[in-house]
Amino acid sequence: MTILVIEDEVSITYLLKKGLEMEFFSVDVAHDGEKGLALAEKNEYDLIILDMMLPKMDGLAVCRAIRRLKINTPVIMLTARDTNEDKKKGFDAGADDYLVKPFSLSDLIERMRTLLKRKQEKVGVVVEKKNQIKLVKERELKQSSFDFNNVSEKKVSKNISKHLHKRVVKKEKIESNELNKIILDNAPVSIITIDKEGCITSANKYFHKFSNAKYYHKHSIFTGSFFNRENLVDDYKKLLSDGTIVKRENCYEKNSKGEDKYLKIIAVPIRNEAGEIEGAISMAIDNTENVSFKHKILELNNELERKVKKRTAELNEANMELAKVLELKSIFMADISHELRTSLTIIQGNMELMSLHQNGNSEFLESNHQILSEVKRMSVMLTDLTTITNSDANQILNYKRVDLDELISSVCKSLKVIADIKNVKIEFKKNIIGAEIMADENKLEKLLSNLVRNAIRYNNNNGWIKVWTQATGKEIKIFVEDNGMGIPQEHLPNIFERFYRVDRARTRSDGGSGLGLAICQWVAKIHGGKIEVKSKLGQGSVFSVSLPKNY
């Protein structure tokens, strides 16, 4: 089988080529993204090992280009940055698996064989699918013909219904706006009636106070100063012509004392039994107090808005400064992590190659094994220390609506290769009604990944892991259950403390840092939730995480 290795570090490339050739693989090498893509397009490979950080064209771009070219070769992504975001980017780009530097050569080969076996199994499925396509298309063609006939009948029926509806619906009756009762003279509203020509025919007592007019009878509204403003004359002419209602919220004028005054005016037509316009009734009310109150409210709102904007600007500036500091810290930690992981990878690779030539020296092999174990443990600890250090300062959450079923499914899928090595079965049961939550997706993914990894690490060969969610009122619970070795009761109260280990010897040999569950507790806590565990020695454990929905 032929393998393509795309890696810019010469030392790592040499180690991979040597190690894979000793396992009877044929290996082609490329030291930059462009050359690697050209080889992948030109030749047919059984598997591609692709580094994420490459010159000329990074690994993510190479992987996307490979998938766009319809090249279905399995891809294992190598990365020195052990963040959930980087892993997600790798899977989204089309990678089938990932390995974090430093990694064991034997671990890499085991994952390669798993992917190659999976690829061979898919070949047999393709033939069967091709045979089914023709039958499916024939059924769809028949079904589409049937649906077309149904749609046609529905359209015809709908058109007939519309046609009949138009014929039976009667014309709307013209609303009658005639005055049904006499308005009391002491009503605090100015009321007048006018005839077809716009002359005043009646008025209440309040009109006299309102307009300071002693006489009104047969006075035309079109010649008085009161109506000669803001197009009122035109509006009243239209009212008497076609019945268009006059409505003004705040007509402005000065009162007799020279103070601001606002009027609310409404006028409606008066019709006879035949529906013809005979005149109109007009009402006006002093709305000055309401307008003044609204102006004061508006001024207060504007002042409050100015203060809020000023305070918001100050907070935004402070947040920007904080973001810059956090970004610099993140970049620094990422760069340090990258350099240390690269060095650890070279150390690990050389130790593995040296061990291949020292089969008879048991003392050397034992020392070599101890060094490799420490390298692996240092790599895990480096990742967890970075996370837990950031957790002390970084309490900022990037909230978004998260589909828990989709996230859990993605985590289980990404860890399947590791579980397959121990033949551990991961079973995820989706929630029937769905499970959505407002949360920081990256931090929540870290929590889930740590719990499932622990369930794999402390499980037995041929064991099982079950993951499910449960909605209860305003919160959602996530459960991770395994049938592994379990936890002694005396250790349960301290299980979430930093660097706490139930079995120090086993944790050290398995490469654990003692920080995984502490990180889980931190993620649950900053989301306003909690994490709990129930366990029996020799029977397994159940971890439950309760989180508020927050929407």
Write a structural description.
The protein is of the alpha/beta class. The protein has four domains: 2-121, Response regulator (Rossmann fold, 3-Layer(aba) Sandwich), CATH 3.40.50; 190-286, Beta-Lactamase (2-Layer Sandwich), CATH 3.30.450; 289-396, Helix Hairpins (Orthogonal Bundle); 397-551, Heat Shock Protein 90, CATH 3.30.565.10. Helix content is 50%, strand content 21%. It contains 14 helices and 17 strands. The protein has helices at 10-22, 33-42, 59-68, 84-93, 105-168, 205-211, 232-242, 288-356, 362-393, 404-414, 416-421, 441-457, 504-509, 516-526, and strands at residues 2-6, 26-30, 47-51, 75-79, 97-100, 190-195, 200-203, 246-254, 260-271, 277-286, 399-403, 425-429, 436-440, 464-472, 475-482, 530-536, 540-548. The strands form four sheets. A five-stranded parallel β-sheet has the order 2-1-3-4-5, with helices on both faces. A five-stranded antiparallel β-sheet has the order 7-6-10-9-8, sandwiched between helices. A five-stranded mixed β-sheet has the order 12-14-15-17-16. α9 runs parallel beside α14 (516-526). The longest helix is centred in the middle third of the chain and has 69 residues, at 288-356. The two termini are 52 Å apart. Mean pLDDT is 79; it is low at 136-184.
Rounded mean pLDDT score:
79
In the predicted model, the low-confidence regions spanning at least 5 consecutive residues are: 136-184
Number of strands: 17
| Helix percent band | 40-55%
Just give the CATH class of the largest domain: Alpha Beta
Proper CATH architecture of the largest domain: 2-Layer Sandwich
Please tell me what the overall shape is: elongated
User: What share of residues are in beta strands?
Assistant: 15-25%
CATH homologous superfamily title of the largest domain: Histidine kinase-like ATPase, C-terminal domain
Q: Count of helices? A: 14
Strand order of the largest sheet: 2-1-3-4-5
Distance between the termini: 52 Å
Write down the CATH topology of the largest domain: Heat Shock Protein 90
Query: For the CA atoms, what is the radius of gyration?
Result: 40 Å
Report the major sheet: 5 strands, parallel
